[in-house]
Each structure stands twice: as structure tokens, then as C-alpha cells.
Amino acid sequence: MQLNATWKCARAVVVEVADGNIYHTDTPWRIIINEQPWGVTDLVETYIDGLEPDTTYRVRYERETDDGITESANVVFVTETESFTLNVRDFGAAGDGERDDTISIQAAIMSCPKDGRVLIPAGDYRIKNLFLTSDMALELAEGATLHARHDRDNLAYLPGNIEGRSGAGYAGTDLLPMGRWEGESMPMFCGVISAMNVHDVTVYGRGVIDGGANADEDNWWHEPKTIRIASRPRMIFLSDCERMDFAGITVRNSPSWNIHPVLSRDLRFLNLTIESPKVSPNTDGLNPESCNNVLIKGCHFSVGDDCIAVKSGKIDMPRELRPACRNLVIEQCHMHDGHGSIVLGSEAAGGIQGLIARNCLFERTDRGLRIKTRRGRGKDSVYGAIQFDHIIMDDVLTPFVVNSFYFCDPDGTSDYVQSREAKPVDDRTPNVASLSFRNIEAKNCHAAAAYITGLPESKVGRLAFHNVHITFRPDARPSVPAMACGVEEMSRRGIIAQHVHKLVLDNVTIEGQDGDELNAIDIDIIER
């Protein structure tokens, strides 16, 4: 067993106990910091705060084994430096739940010097929108809640793309990307917290960002598909940012997607709690879109849509504004309620290349891995080098879904999208290239062990299962495994696979299914 300080800033650290467990440790650990008791944890990844800048700390974990022996491990680290602290109360913020504190908090942010900290102490702060600047830290202290306003007529919004001088825009274009909604450039209300073209920012703490969304007539979840002034805001929106860290905070009751980084690089999301009611519309947890080098670790999700959805825009967007989403690592996360635990697509016209999900726990989600694509996403929409390893699923309706007939968008039910006959391969044809699943236990499943449908003209390239064990609930609830026309409710079905080039089944067991373990149609190679 080993302790690692996997992330740190001037006043907080994330400590990982590498004891072979997933999300929770098997027994609690006592935490001692510089020989002083700090608390108890049963998490593999633990967020620890209350530290001082530029200080050496020794963290020790202790517990007693069953035979009475004290087991312990240590890690030593030095916190980062900090230049100044700017308390928002010194800028006029009241934190009384009544006054609009937006301008006071924004004044502190705009005044923050390089490597400084803006501190939001305990209190209830009513805000509209906040914008981050580069080279700063924002601490949302324990007991602090940012309450977002929802009166549309008094909120700022971003336009879609702004045209400028040739070559002055993003990636050498004449376009400055701003607002975005479901893979298209369009006006959107500013995020509760937004960052536009900034770098080297840390947002951390035990505080809460509350979007205040509900289904009342004048609020965000009422008639969610109707665009009123602009599309619904995200809780945290990043555009063209780099080296951004978010640690410890809770995000809840989002108007739409909770955290949405776009065209950004070197992002870390650590020990976040992201929550919205199960029935809330489009409240995806964390959706990286056309981003590179993203780490999502130690986070807890319970939302009304997909927990994590990886995207890269729609085909009508200029190609430079929808590059592939690349190099994502998701580990030690807990997905508890949601449509899909980890989802790729469907707006992924730029493709998704290189995703590793490991040591995660999925509970009560509709689907475990969920790939959504369809004709019309385009030839750049290639899903490749996707790996899942050491995953536990419990009470998930369908653990593995690859759906190449996803019926989203106004034309989603058209013959072009939904026809099961082969269409000509052209610039609109997507491809699922390679998927690998290793060391996975899925218990108490409901609908099917796996539901895999490639396109007849563009088969799933290689789909490999190694050491995968699936069991069904005796009282399995019938449900639809994939959102496509003609797919009916089912329960306790085995692996359903259609239009796959190579299917590898290595030490795969399925228990409690009705009928055959494998229902294969148009599979070129099956390797056992």
C-alpha cells in the first residue's frame, strides 16, 4: 500500500491511497497531518484542505488490521506558493443570500495579482455570472454557496462565432468561438462561472455552486428545448483555456450541462461532486468537447443525463473549430444515477482518440459505456483507442452500448439515419474503430449484456472483451438498451452484436440470461 500526493495547490492537496480498491477503501483510514489528527476517510482519493502556502507537510494514514496490527503509510510534499489573498468581503460582498454580490466578487477577481487567491468565505452569495482571469486561484470555502440567478432578461449571454481579421481567430481562422450548444456555434447564456482564453487557474474548496434550476415556468428546466433569448447556461464553461484545475467543490442543480470545457488543454477535475435530480433535462455532469489532455479523477456524479459525455462538435461547424477530443483519463470515479456512465458522442464530428477509463464504479445508470453516433456525423468522426479497465457496475440496465443509429436531431428518425440497409460511404459516414474492455464485473443488469450496432457500410472495427463477467437481476426490469428506431424493450438478453469486423470474447461469462449468450449478425471474425 502506498500514498501519493496526486495534486496540490497552495492550500489543499489530493492524497491517493493505492491499495487496489475502486473509489472506496475496504476499511476507513485515520489521517494525521504533521502529527495532528485531521479526520477519517474511506475514499481512495481524498481532498485535504486547511493547509498553508509554501509549507512542508507529512501526511500519514493509519488503521488497524483484523489481527490488531497498525498499518500505516506516509507521503511528504510542499504546498505551492501564494502571493496575496483577496477576500471578497473586502470588496463589498455581503454573502447574506439577498444582495447581488456579482460585481463585488468580480472586482476581487479582476484585481487579483499573479499567483494570488480570491477567497469566498462561508456565506450565501447571490450572483449572475463570474469570469475568471489567468494566473489566479479561486477558493470557495466550506459553507460558501454561490446561488445563481435565473432571470433571463438580466443575464449576459455569449454570441456564437465572431468574425474578425483573417488568421487572427482560433487555429488560424478568422473566427473567435464563443457560445456553443450541442455541437453547434450559437448564442448561449454565460456560465455561472466562465473562463474565456485564460490559463493557469485553480478553482478549489469545499463550497457549492448552485444553479438554482427547477421546472417552474420562469426557470431553466421548463420547456428545456425552447430557446428563449439564448441557449441555457452551463454551470462552468471554459473556452480555449489551458492548465485549469478544479478540485473539491460541489456543483448542483445546473440549468443544463454542469461543466463544459471546449477547445481547451491540460485540464484536471479532481474530487468534484456533481449532482442534479434524476429527472432534470440535459444535466450532463462533465462534457469535454474538442479538448486535449483531460484528467477526471475521484469525482462523484448523480445527474439527470449522462455523467461524462465526450464530444467534438457537429459536421456543419468549421473543421478547425471541431478538432478531435484526445488523451482523456477517467479514474477512481463514482457514477451513481444517469443515462450513461461514460458516453462518447453523439456530437463528435471531430472524432475521439485516446480515452482510458479505469478503476471506476458505475451504479444505477441506464448504461455503462455508451457510444452514440449516426450517419451525418462525418468521416472525421472516428472513435479510436478507447479502453476500459477494472470497472465495477451494479444495477446498470445495459453495461455496453454502441449505437450507430442514435435518433437525435430533427432528422434523427429519417430514413438516411435509421435505415438498416447499407448506404454509400461518403464524407458524412462515421466510424467506431477500436474498443477494449478488460477486467469488468457487471452485476444485477437488466436489459442486455451488451447491445452493439455498427453501420452496415462502416462496421465497428475491433471490439474486444477480456475477463468480463455479467450477471442479471432475477427481477430484471425490461428497458430499451439503445435510443434508435425499432429497438424495443428487452430484459435478460445476452450480447447482441451487429455489423462488427472483429469481435474478441476472451474469458467472458454471462449468467442469468434468457436465450443465447451471443446473438451475432454480420460479424466477420469472432475470436474466443
From TrEMBL:
Keyword Iron-sulfur: no
Residue ranges annotated for the Rhamnogalacturonase A/B/Epimerase-like pectate lyase domain, each copy included: 86-129
InterPro entries documented for this protein: GH28_Enzymes, Glyco_hydro_28, PbH1, Pectin_lyas_fold, Pectin_lyase_fold/virulence, RHGA/B-epi-like_pectate_lyase
GO biological process, one term: carbohydrate metabolic process
One MF annotation (Gene Ontology) recorded for this entry: polygalacturonase activity
Transmembrane segments: none
Keyword Hydrolase included in the entry's annotation: yes
SMART domains, per the entry: PbH1
Annotated keywords: Glycosidase, Hydrolase
Family of this protein: Belongs to the glycosyl hydrolase 28 family.
PANTHER family: PECTIN LYASE-RELATED, PLASMIN AND FIBRONECTIN-BINDING PROTEIN A
Protein name per the record: Polygalacturonase
Organism: Bifidobacterium oedipodis
